[in-house]
Amino acid sequence: xxxxxxxxxxxxxxxxxLPELLGLLEEFTPVVEALPPDGALADLxxxxxxxxxxxxxxxxxxxxxxxxLYGVDCVIGAGPGPMLARxxxxxxxxxxxxxxxxxxERAFLDGKPVAALPGVxxxxxxxxxxxxxxxxxxxxxxxxxxLQRLVGAKAxxxxxxxxxxxxxGRVVPNGVSRSLVADRPFDRDELDPDRHRRALLSAxxxxxxxxxxxxxxxxxxxxxxxxxDRSATTRxxxxxxxxxxxxxxxxxxxxxxxxxxxxxxxxxxxxLRAESLTPAEHASHQLTFDPVDEKVRRIEEVAxxxxxxxxxxxxxxxxxxx
Length: 322
Prior knowledge:
- The chain is an alpha+beta fold.
- The chain has a five-stranded mixed β-sheet with strand order 2-3-1-4-5. Strands 6, 7, 8, 9 and 10 form a five-stranded antiparallel β-sheet that branches.
- It has helices at residues 18-26, 45-51, 55-70, 82-91, 105-109, 122-130, 136-141, 144-151, 153-163, 193-213, 246-260, 291-310, and strands spanning 3-8, 32-35, 39-43, 74-79, 98-99, 179-190, 216-227, 232-243, 267-275, 278-279.
């Protein structure tokens, strides 16, 4: 086990702490890949030799330091490769690292549903299940030629390897988040456009607050609508200027939604993603001389200070957007 997949239990308003937590991981290894908004992969091959401890023991040290220095607990999965570490993370619990030992890949994978494998989408899983290949053990035992006929030559080969525990992924060091996402699932499939718009208002307000908390602005906003039949529609729009202003994000989200022309669509969830993030200090803002806009921006500043002092419930997300 040389790879850790760590998810820090950060509330949305504390995403600014992620770079510091990545720095904690970098005390053990320089090979750290950020998984925004609250996670990371760490390759501990060198650290195991240097510290004379295995990955699970180092995971315990990381957890204790995160709690002691930042007051943040974490959930950790460990495995021989990034794919297996990510899958192990799903079975992990706070205070307990879920580990997949080298040589134990098949024992870990065989009983899992085929949809649990990263890269296997709904359509592929449905096709495989129709032919009785509903677990990874059955996929691993199936002839390669059968899988290639079902899902294609390249995809079939990759699926066959992954189901057998062959993990060719690697940890790629990168910077912190170039995107943030706010997902708004509904308790039941929702037909009401007004409820759709309220969800977008909340998501845009949440994104704006989180962008401002990490001193970032976004240049692109993407809307994903997921429907009751498990299909989805995604639309993106480049903003006229980079922004973290909740009202501007809300207007763009509404425009994207209206452009879809949905009529009595049964919506399961709505998600907004802020992309192409850049430091706020590098962005320019076109002065509008609009007293209403300036007033809203001042209120946002006050609300952000309230969130920082009293927590995320101090101000309801989206309550300031126009």
